[in-house]
User: Which sequence fits this backbone?
């Protein structure tokens, strides 16, 4: 079936280091969404990308959507302890009813 | 605008019992989705309701069911609880389609003993 694979599953970084998580879909996506879940919390929407090759930035976060609309990445520059949490990508698939397929998430730990 | 609310927030049940969880979406949102989250399993999609109709369904056994009311509020029911059903159950609402931005509630933490 349709899947969205996300890697790595876990990442430990020293504060100030960069971090990147990648998503790859088995099918062409209509959009890609990114969510962040803090420990003990619930997923919170970060951003949505729709266009092929789109790049969006939110302060230290950079989001990219691949040219083929099958992959995406989230890059955090100079991580801070507030970046700790699990980052999920979710691929939207158009169709009669549509689907939103979540990746397994990347859990980021930041050592101060 | 009030966010998505879920009740109860915590629940403890024993094997074999059934449970009903409730979700109130953001006002004006018509799509409600349910997810099960367990450590190491990520977000597992249960089902989506739109205008009182189940529009999408994940790969869960028939013990998991749901419904949506005319005011878009939704409930999910799990019958004959098993230990493996212990999880955080998240509800998310969106304006129209499931591919729209999902707004998640705080979740219901279900523990099955």
Assistant:
């Amino acid at each position: 079936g349709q899947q969205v694979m996300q890697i790595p599953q876990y990442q430990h970084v020293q504060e100030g280091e960069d971090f990147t998580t990648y998503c790859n879909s088995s099918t062409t996506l209509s959009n890609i969404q990114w969510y962040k879940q803090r420990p003990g919390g619930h997923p919170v929407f970060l951003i949505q990308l729709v266009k092929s090759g789109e790049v969006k930035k939110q302060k230290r976060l950079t989001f990219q959507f691949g040219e083929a609309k099958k992959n995406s990445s989230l890059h955090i520059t100079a991580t801070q302890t507030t970046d700790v949490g699990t980052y999920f990508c979710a691929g939207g698939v158009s169709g009669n009813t549509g689907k939103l397929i979540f990746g397994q998430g990347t859990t980021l730990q930041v050592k101060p | 605008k009030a966010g998505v609310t879920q009740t109860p927030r915590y629940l403890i049940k024993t094997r074999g019992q059934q449970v009903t969880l409730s979700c109130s979406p953001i006002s004006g949102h018509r799509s409600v989705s349910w997810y099960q989250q367990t450590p190491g399993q990520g977000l597992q999609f249960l089902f989506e309701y739109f205008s009182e109709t189940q529009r999408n369904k994940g790969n869960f056994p028939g013990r998991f069911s749901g419904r949506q009311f005319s005011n878009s509020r939704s409930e999910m029911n799990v019958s004959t609880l098993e230990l493996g059903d212990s999880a955080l159950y998240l509800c998310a609402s969106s304006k129209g389609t499931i591919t729209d931005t999902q707004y998640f509630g705080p979740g219901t933490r279900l523990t099955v003993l």
Summary: Chain A touches chain B at residues 30-31, 33, 35, 41-45, 48, 88, 90, 92-94, 97-105 (CB under 8 Å). The mean pLDDT of chain A is 95. Chain A has no helices and eleven strands.
